[in-house]
Amino acid sequence: MELTAIIPARGGSKRIPEKNIIDFHGQPIISRVIRTAYASGLFGKIIVSTDDQEVALIAKAAKADVIKRPAFLSDEHAPILPVIQHVIETKEIKKGYICLILATAVFLKPDHLRKAYSKIKKDKTLEFVIGVKKFESAPQRALKMNRRGNVSQVYPGHINSRSQDLEPLFFDAGLFSLGKVKAFQRGKHSFASKTYGLKLSEFEAIDIDEPSDLRYAKKLFLIEGFAPKERVIIRCDTSRKSGLGHYKRCIGLTEDLMKVGFDNIFFIENNKKHSFLKNKSVVKYIKNGLNQIEDARATIDLAEATGAKLILKDHFSLDHSWDECVKKSGLKLLAFDELNNTTIADIVVNYSPEAVKPETLSTKYKFLGGEQYFISNIKKRDKNVAKKMQHKVLFFVGGTGNIKKHENLVRAAISKASEYNLEIYWLGLNIDSEKLIQRLENNFSRKRILPWQENNSWENYDFVICPPSTVLFETILQGSIPITYTLSKSQTDNRNSWLSLGHACHITRNELSDQKKIEKIIDIAIKYAKPIHKYLKDYSKNLDGNGGRRIAHEIIQLIHPKPKIRAIKKNILTNNSKILIRPCSIKDIENFRYARNDIKARSVSTNPERLISWAEHLEWWLGNDIDKFIMEQHGKSLIYFWHKAVSQGNRRFLVGGWFPACDGPIFNYVVKMLSWQLSELKKSYPDHTWLATINKKNKPVLALNLKMGFKYADPLTVSFSKNIFPGTNDDFHVLTKDLN
Q1: Which of 202, 336, 373, 590 is surrounded by the fewest CB atoms within 10 Å?
Q2: What is the mean pLDDT of residues 621-628?
Q3: Equal fold, 230-373 vs 393-540
Q4: Using a CB cutoff of 8 Å and minimum separation of 24, what contacts does 649-653 make?
Q5: Exposure of 213 by Cβ count < 10 A (0-12 exposed, 13-18 middle, 19+ buried)?
């Protein structure tokens, strides 16, 4: 290997828990660093050194090699150099170059690595190349402070020096250190060697040590354009038959996608009706008159030309054949679908209240259902602040602006507005609907016919009559009372669905034919505004308009899936005997120690004379990556047991132990415990070998393990067992069982 990358990433971090795998704009932070290293095209291998199983799984998912770091190199005081030397020795790297990369170096660019490698290859006298940054203020003019708060110069000779006259000084940027293998082997420090400093700008490196550093880094990452520019194609319905809802929610979602580094390309019908809505994304127009397959092919061609990996569909006219064509191309597909027609989209979104995953959608696809996925950038009103009466009603037509077929609704609205002395305003009318209003309303005024605006506000009205669509949700968010009617087949007409939001004033399709029934519902909305407000407040708590953020997160997971962390089941019930196995909590710690110190347990251990102290037990409990469990029956403790993964050489082992926690016969419980343990560990650690040391005097347990499929270990494994269990001698049998 000419050039090897080594990324140290231990599991423990006190100031920022799980710092090396913390989410950074949708990906574990170390995954971004590994991707950058691969993007440089320099490395024969990228190796992560860690003591943490979750870090290891995430690193492997990012295609890095993993080396188990020994405990003595894993505490917070362990220096970096011995960690690098351990990797060099373990991997038998004899020559070439090593590039140490920090696990949180998210501002590292592939070009930084290429420049560093080019420099050290050209200049044979160099031993290291590191990234450096210039001090923002001249250190020569630094001040020190005593206990009283008095300050004085560290370098008095520069008291009158101007900053521009002082020699520029630099510091290690904390991104990488690229050096010769021999220099690392000899224990040389890059600060005290023949080292070249690759200058980095102010915003090309941030040392992430404190939570405030992390927050700043996340903001800077987006501002400075470091975020990966994934592309999404938005196939949205903007045809003349469509209302503004599709386009509006897609714009809202793309604004949230932009915040996490996505570029979005709208692929839509050319309709001037939608042009007033501001869209920060690229807009391209699809050719008119295409059939389903032609439309899908045009969308796929655009995705391939722009490097997009995901198609977002918000278009009721595109059917299963369109979805099938897109999926066959290998692209990911997200679909908004309130009708449950989509059966093969990777993510289906339906923000209707209490929406449930349709049976026609396979379990391998994700369903995002319920009002928490509603998308809106409208200003939300504080629900705890009482709203003043405005004496206004807004009638929003929706769809294509045609209200003629719902003349009964128009008549009822005009009648009740007049009865309660409310001004009625009209929004979204086409020409024919405007003529209808002019004919039916006695005091008609064009001042009350409103044009669509970028951000229409519903909070200025006491009541909003509208279809059960985007406007309904936004009306609730802004504290007004919605009165809804079903405009199209794509809208939910089931009143029970809307009641789950506290919305009681829905007019069904059947009721639209009866003006008196419509008037009664409007009458109730006006008379009982106060309790209706309370229902809406109490039952719409999941409605916050932040669905775009949640969907953006799911899109990131779809494109860059996190590895599934293998986990032991939390609870398991065996037969009908009410035997429960659960993970130990901190409340179990002392009783676990008592069980470890049981006379019978100690007598067959590798160190029978020694009792385990509280401090030793506490350190064992807190300082090791150990899974600890308890078996109980009817609330009574039966057995405490544990297991953990360890490595010796190139072998991966699982080791463990168990301790009785009750008096009386226990062998049957041990059989159940061991059966459960082996069953679960086969799922979680299929590439490991179970290693057991059993005292030769403990013949029942030896017989049980042999019956369970354990075999006597080979001489090499026996030698490994002595490192893992100090005190293992000829009084013990060493057994193994492969878990694959």
Answers
A1: 202
A2: 77
A3: yes
A4: 649/720, 651/689, 651/717, 651/720, 652/685, 652/687, 652/688, 652/689, 653/688, 653/689, 653/690, 653/691, 653/720, 653/724
A5: middle
Our CA angle for 376, 494, 479, nearest 5°, is: 35
Query: What percentage of the chain exceeds 90 in pLDDT?
Result: 35
- Average pLDDT of the residues of the chain: 86
Q: Do the Cβ atoms of 534 and 490 come closer than 8 Å? A: no
Residue-wise pLDDT for 16-66, tens only, equals: 888 999 988 778 899 989 988 988 889 989 999 999 989 999 999 888 999
Window from 123-132, 170-179, 400-409, 470-479 with minimum mean pLDDT: 400-409
Radius of gyration of the CA atoms of the chain, in A:
34
Strands of 269-323, DSSP E: 282-285, 310-314
| 630, 633, 637, 642 alpha-carbon torsion, rounded to 10° | -20
Are 88 and 185 in contact by the 8 Å Cβ rule? The answer is yes
| Global pTM exceeds 0.85 | no
Percentage of the chain lying above the pLDDT 70 cut: 93
CATH of 3-223, one of 3.40.50.2300, 3.40.50.620, 3.90.190.10, 3.90.550.10: 3.90.550.10
Rounded Cα gap, residues 51 and 69, in angstroms: 5
Instruction: Show the tokens assigned to 561.
Output: 């899936």
Which long-range contacts (C-beta less than 8 Å, at least 24 apart) are formed by 333-337?
334/310, 334/551, 334/555, 334/558, 336/246, 336/249, 336/312
| Topology, domain 230-373 | Rossmann fold (3.40.50)
Distance between CA atoms of residues 487 and 484, nearest Å: 9
User: 294: which 2 tokens?
Assistant: 């032609």
Please state, in angstroms and rounded to a whole number, the distance separating the CA atoms of residues 26 and 549: 11
* Residues 181-199: tens digit of each pLDDT: 999 998 888 877 799 999 9
Instruction: Kindly state the tokens that stand for 4.
Output: 């090897």
Q: Which of 72, 80, 61 is nearest to 9 (CA)?
A: 80
Domain boundaries, given as residue ranges, for the chain = 3-223, 230-373, 393-540, 572-738
> Within a 10 A sphere around the Cβ of 447, how many other Cβ atoms?
8
- Asked whether 683 and 566 are in contact (CB, 8 A), the reply is yes
User: Do the bridges between strand 97-101 and strand 65-68 make them parallel or antiparallel, or are there none, so unpaired?
Assistant: unpaired
CA–CA separation, 532 vs 506, rounded Å? 12
